[in-house]
Structure formats: structure tokens, C-alpha cells
Specification:
Distance between the termini: 28 Å
Shape: elongated
Order of helices and strands: EHEHEHEHEHEEEEHEHHEE
Oligomer: single chain
Number of helices: 8
CATH architecture of the largest domain: 3-Layer(aba) Sandwich
Strand order of the largest sheet: 2-1-3-4-5
Largest sheet: 5 strands, parallel
CATH class of the largest domain: Alpha Beta
CATH superfamily of the largest domain: Response regulator
CATH topology of the largest domain: Rossmann fold
Number of strands: 12
Radius of gyration: 19 Å
Structural class: alpha/beta
């Protein structure tokens, strides 16, 4: 069965570009050009994913996202936000509301399709367990054994460094805000503040050495583990 994507975009040229290329990729599509209309229709359409512009008539994209995440019928539907470059605070707000990802305009069609497919794949994956071992190329993170290996060699890390690395590596490609990273560590009642996350990231990168670039800073938002 075709995956169903609901596009909410009021700029005709961008809407047509998205619709044309996603249709070519075999997706079923629904379209709305107003936020209030989208908020009413999405619960009935029940799409697999929503592509949501932030600047919309009727109701802005953040309000649409908030409404979707509050409704039990739509809370699990992943939302990818379409944003302008100057909307960093809105990106942070959207991610904290539960958006799965964001794409900055102007965007590459290849990037759009790749992000859509990645989010759809993640929706079908079971949620990561905080004690599950993660293996990504030559990096191994095993919280249960409090062990990090790079090319088979152990890397000494503090409890919070290992938990933050595990939280990022368990969702490669996802942007985690500082608050989300704090929550991942606080799950074990470990005291850490959002600003302390930056300090932990500096320590992580230093200990990861040649693999330090796997942790990417997303300016104004948080951090991402590069797949």
C-alpha cells in the first residue's frame, strides 16, 4: 500500500514542486494551503506523514503541530516542518512540540525525499531501549556494560557522556534539542542541566577523537548524530 503524505503549504510553486516529486516517488498525497483547514482534515485523512509549512494563513504551522500532537488520533503521525532560514526559535519550538524533523527552504528535492523516507522508516522501528547496544560502523555503545568501543578499543566515558552518546546514536539523523537530551539522561535520575549538555558534548567529542565529527551541532536547536 502506498504511503500517504499530507502536504500543508501555501506557496504555489513550492507546493507544486513537492507534489510533483513525491508523486513520482509513488506516494499518495493530500494537500492543504491553510493551517486551519489542515488541522480539521488531517484527523480524517490519517496520513502516514505530514509536511508542514510554518507560515500559513488561518493557523500557523506551530499551532497546527500543537493541535496534532494533543489529539490522540494524530499524535503518532510524524511531522516534518518546512521552515525559512531565520526561524531557529520556531524550529526549536516545533521539535519540542514533537515534530520529527525540519527542512530549511530553499531545499534540495533529493534531501526532501531522503528525509521523508528516513522519517517513515523510523516510524516503523520500535523505540530504542536505553540499555540496547548500538553498533554504527566501528562504534559500539553498550550502556548495560557501560562500554564504548571504537575500532574495538575501549573509550573511557562518564555516565552522562555515555547516556548522551547513546541517546544521539539511537536516532541517527534526528535532531535532539538540549531538553530532549537532558530528559534522556534524567531517565536515570542523573542531575544535568541543559547548558551542561554543551559541556558534555565537548568532552564527548574530545574522547571520540577521529570520530568526533559524528556529533553535529545544529545551530540554535541542539545536536544530531550523523549516520
Amino acid at each position: 500500500m502506498k504511503k500517504h503524505i499530507f502536504i500543508v503549504e501555501d506557496e504555489p510553486d513550492i507546493l507544486e514542486l513537492i507534489r510533483y516529486h513525491l508523486s513520482r516517488e509513488g506516494f499518495a498525497l493530500s494537500v492543504s494551503t491553510r493551517g486551519d483547514e489542515a488541522a480539521r482534515n488531517i484527523p480524517f485523512k490519517k496520513p502516514d506523514l505530514v509536511l508542514l509549512d510554518l507560515m500559513l494563513p488561518g493557523l500557523d504551522g506551530l499551532e497546527v503541530c500543537r493541535a496534532l500532537k494533543k489529539d490522540p488520533q494524530t499524535a503518532a503521525i510524524p511531522v516534518i516542518m518546512l521552515t525559512a532560514k531565520g526561524e531557529e526559535s520556531d524550529i526549536v519550538t516545533g521539535l519540542e512540540l514533537g515534530a520529527a524533523d525540519y527542512i530549511v527552504k530553499p531545499f534540495s528535492v533529493k534531501v526532501l525525499i531522503a528525509r521523508v523516507r528516513a522519517v517513515l522508516r523510523r516510524r516503523e522501528e520500535p523505540p530504542p531501549d536505553k540499555n540496547t547496544e548500538i553498533r554504527i560502523r566501528d562504534l559500539v555503545v553498550n550502556p548495560g556494560r557501560h562500554e564504548v568501543l571504537i575500532k574495538g578499543k575501549p573509550v573511557d566515558m562518564t555516565f552522562s557522556e555515555l547516556r548522551i552518546l547513546h541517546a544521539l546514536a539511537s536516532r541517527p539523523g534526528w535532531v535532539l534539542t538540549r531538553d530532549q537530551i537532558v530528559d534522556a539522561v534524567r531517565g536515570e535520575d542523573y542531575p544535568v542541566t541543559d547548558r551542561a549538555v554543551d559541556v558534555q558534548i565537548v568532552g564527548l567529542r574530545r574522547k571520540l577523537g577521529a570520530r568526533a565529527d559524528c556529533i553535529e551541532t545544529v545551530r540554535g536547536v541542539g545536536y544530531r548524530f550523523k549516520a
